[in-house]
Amino acid sequence: MLHSFILVSGFFREEGVSAIMALRIRLARGGSKKRPFYKLVVAENTAPRDGKFIERLGSYNPLLEKDNPERVVIEQERIKHWLSVGAQASDRVTRILADCGLITAPARRDTPKKSAPKKKAQERMKRERELAASAAAPEA
Prior knowledge:
3 helices, elongated, CATH 3.30.1320.10, three-stranded antiparallel β-sheet
């Protein structure tokens, strides 16, 4: 069966179907066990990770060295096209595209909030700092 799609304000809609599908540029995993290899694809938001996709845009091989040109292979013109029609990049793809200079890198925090010391530990550290400051004050 031949599918035809219509562009409707950043979403693609299959002709004759009222549902609009959101598009995503994401990674589809390939390769064998413990040897990952990813394809950069444009797919519907609801499609399975390794399932149906609209277009293949490149590949990503995390096992290669970071300076190896084969590590990330992308079709820049097609990615620019899909981003211009409203496709959203996943978090990992956003970082890959930012490294390639296609989009601006999102702000990243170095340490997540989750790893910050909890309330009791913060109170204990505050008391220790105060004790150290009071011990150092009489000496001066």
